[in-house]
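P.,

For your records, the input lines for the assembly:
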Amino acid sequence: MDIAPDADLENFRKEVAEFLDTAPTPEIREAGRKTTSLFPAFEQVMAWQRILHARGWAAPAWPIEHGGPGWSVEQRYIFADEYQKRGLPPLLPNGLQMVGPLLMELGTPEQQARYLPGILSGEDYWTQGYSEPGSGSDLASLSCSAAPDGDDYLLNGSKIWTSHAHLANRMFMLVRTSSEGRKQQGITFLLLDRMDYPGMEVRPIIGLDGEPEQCEVFFTDVRVPQSGRVGAENDGWSVAKQLLTHERGGSAQSPMLRHRLGAAREAAARTPSAFGGTLAEDPVFRRDLGELEVEIASYEHFEKLALSGHEIAQDPAFPSLNKVMSSELTQRISVLMTRVAGLDALPDQREALHVGAPVDPLGDDLALVAMPYYLNSRATTIYAGTNEVQRDLIARTLRH
Amino acid sequence: MNFSFTEEQDLLRASVSQYLQRHYTFEDRQAVVRSKAGWSHEVWRGLGELGLHALPFPEEAGGLGGSIVDVVATAELFGAHLVVEPYVASVMLAGTALAAVPEHADTAHRLERIVAGEAIGAFAHEEGSGMPDPALVATRAERTANGYVLTGEKKMVLHGADADILVVSARLHGEPGDPDGLALFVVDPPTAGIAATPFVTVDGRRAAHLRFDDAELASDALLTADAHDVIMKVLDRAIVALAAESVGSMGELLHRTAEYASTREQFGVPIGTFQAVAHRLADMKIAYVKARSTLLYTAALAEAEQAEPHDLAVLKAQVGRLGRVIGESAIQTHGGVGMTDELPIGHLHKRILAVDAMFGATDHHLRTVGAGRPEPQPASRAG
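Structure tokens returned:
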């Protein structure tokens, strides 16, 4: 074993820290402070992506040949750590972490050349069309259809939980191209170049946190070119499974969890306890904080083992283990945040949460984000395969 | 970063594993536990021949110069096979304490005997608070004309009644709570004034409460009069070794329970196909992966001498919490047979519980972690 960071990495950390200290505008920092989900304020986070892209750092995990920095796993972890320490808004994942890496693996050279540069620069922004009203955990039962018509497909049906579809200009989706055989066999993976094809309608859905983060998308005889297909017709299920490994794994989550925990601890040290002293000194709170910290620590250790190439990452259950752990810790930290905020979590501060809002927030930063973050985080154990489905998958790998 | 065992460590694990599979089946182990001595000299010799007694000691003390990661690599297997031989007491506790005071005239030959497997050491330190902090020691050592007189009680001393060499912590001055004034003594029992109440622990180990009633020790029994840091070092290493044992037991429980759920049929199908059972198994796996990740990470920290008390508290708390989840789930999944003494399931769980109780249980370490990581102390001198 070897845990010692080498001198080069310390220099790298300094270089990253200096950039992250100076490059973000005040609006970008504000968007970071006001982030309550995977999706920070759109305008500011896209501006931030352009700044990072100019430095070559928009996609830490991308290889050099596709415009990434070609960093080692240690470098990526350091970058994530320094990034989270400053509470900067996370870049939107749909393009950079999901469809981008998928195209690198399974896209044609034409598709790569056409789509990857726009994903990296932030010129294009993608939404994911997987779930349907009747197909959630049982995704393979999806029915939104694509009928071949010359060089095109004609799409009919609908998609739901398409995050940010109202802001996106492109979409990747699963469609049914055959009803023969097993339900998994008639699915095709498709890229849409536009979100405003005739016959397409996007309807935002207001979430528990009051924000239109999710959408429903309706298709009525929408004509799209077949050249947007990734992989073979009717082979979309294996493409989708490949993409899920990116969605469920990929980047380091523990720095974000650590950052949130640290912020909650600091806020608790300023919060009086009804039993005297501060909340941070209260033995019950302290024990609960300890329990969450040891859990986050174990997840961090798990992540670092995996990033360093330990055999733990070869476990067939790895993506599911990672998804269950990170999502449940996200929820637990969000609960702790609402506990620290107490009554201050109750005012509906939707307006103050917008970047550049003309109203001042009530209470401190933690009080501002605690409740919407808590509410939004209920989705973490639902999206990308519910944690029930993930536990089924983990258990399947244990069967003899 | 690299958290994998080296090729040498993998080879060592393979030979220890092979030895235990051949000579230490669960039935063999149960026979050993029921024997008069409660542990097997033959197995102890066998483990010695594999180099395990000498493994963690420096070469100048006759050891193999192994690291804490070598200890972890083998202790995991001890946990999986429920080895009751006195590895923790003799090698990790008494041996480490003796090796920490090499300047003392009488430690070398005693350590040599431990390394050779000729003598068993025990470490009489805990006094019943369940907290590992050496400052809590209340046992007194009074200086006399001929040496020292010890008065006090020590609890749950592993091999306290059958050890050949006893290392004892006691207070030369100050009150419990004071980190100064602590000393370590070495005694070769039997000694007048030391009364042992021996017992067998729930996990099949030999241990004893020790009572010191004006026990007279010679002057040269004093190992060090500045013992706080030595005791901490001994405890820190023992915590890592015990955690590795516990994780080894967890892995065995997971493996056996997954196997059982795949073969045991009710309602005409394997019980593992029921979602309630499947999800319990998934949670066992999640718990195991967390515990093992933290074990390996902390072992790497300890090897690099970067493990702070906070890191060890994280490890000990996680092993306690997650081990309980795994053990209790394993019993539940096995149903009635999980309640029987003849299956290893309950014995593996008992080992996990015993490890949790020693050197600070989960609650103690969670409160330590919850208090926050202390600010790094400024270096005392430049360079």
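Two observations worth noting. The first helix of chain A runs from residue 7 to 22. Strands of chain A lie at 126-129, 145-149, 152-160, 170-176, 187-192, 200-205, 214-225, 229-230.

Regards
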